Amino acid sequence: MSEVDDGNNAARRDNGTEFNAWRGPGQAAFDFRSDVVTTPTASMLAAIRNTTLFHDVYREDETTNDLETYIASITNHEAALFVVSRTMGNQIALRSHLMQPPYSVLCDYRAHILEWEGGGVASLCGALVKGIIPKNGHHLTLEDIEKHISLFNDVHACPTRVISLENTLDGTILPLEEIRRISAFAREHDVKLHLDGARLWEAVAAGVSNLADYTSCFDSVNLCFSKGLGAPVESMLVGKKSFIQHARRARKNIGGGLRQSGVITAAARVAVTETFEGGLLQNSHCMAKTITTNMVWLDLEEFGIDEEEFNSLGKYQGILLSGGRVVVHYQISDEAVSKLEKVMETVVARTRSNGTVQAKVGHKSYGTTR
Questions:
Q1: Which of 25, 109, 149, 325 has its CA 20 to 30 A from that of 141?
Q2: Each residue of 261-274: pLDDT tens digit?
Q3: Could you tell me the residue ranges of all domains in the chain?
């Protein structure tokens, strides 16, 4: 039985060389569970060693200030704010948009802000969240929004103050033209438009459009450096200067003020320049070319196999799996892909011997955005 290689065996065999976890992706090279398992690189460590060590709350850390200015620039927004988690970025954004209640937030029913942030929109913002099931089974459209939005002409309904979209969602891309339609509608009705763009880098890497084309449509955007890009920590919130000023206060209010922030923002800058702008994300898209970006969904029920058994088959081959969601990130090795092929060959062989219908492969119209 194979064991998952932690990627450091070569380092241990290198006589006279001290073990160093930064020498390669380690276990991440064999881990298909999520792109959050990507690990920092040696160049990120070098950037950390040479970073500035000043106080971010006082706005004195040059590394952090430069990163915020740079991300604001490439997203075509006035200002940016570094935050220590995706959840913090989304919650600060919504809290900064939502002023005097009552108010509600519209989103896809699978959205991270609804399913994976511990009820933060309700507890931190006091807002009603309305999850919408897309009529097309894939992504929200303007028609979905128009059907469910509550404007200010009905005293019985909780008025919609924010529409929150997510791109990518379950590895699929929300089309730019649809975003533009929703954006024009939101601005016409004075409703704020927020983007949870934790994996927006993947949409851009897929070659659909450039980053600024997407981000210019929104009042605020939350981008993640650790999902797929490999930085240890974490997200950047962009928007107008007045919005970011309010967001900075909200960040402090929930314990997000940072001291020597350059230690983490230095690595984030390398993640953007090397992994995103350097074109490394495209490699994972080539591996996962059966769908839109870097996530593949398998309908294991139609294979006649449960998630635990599927995960065990992966472990036997020396890879880590998490049920039917297979995430191909840029640090996945060719060897890991070969091992995954062996797992699928085993599953298909069992399917044929049992007379089970072959499973569907592609995007998923329901699920999670872990």
A1: 325
A2: 999 999 999 999 99
A3: 9-39+280-362, 43-276
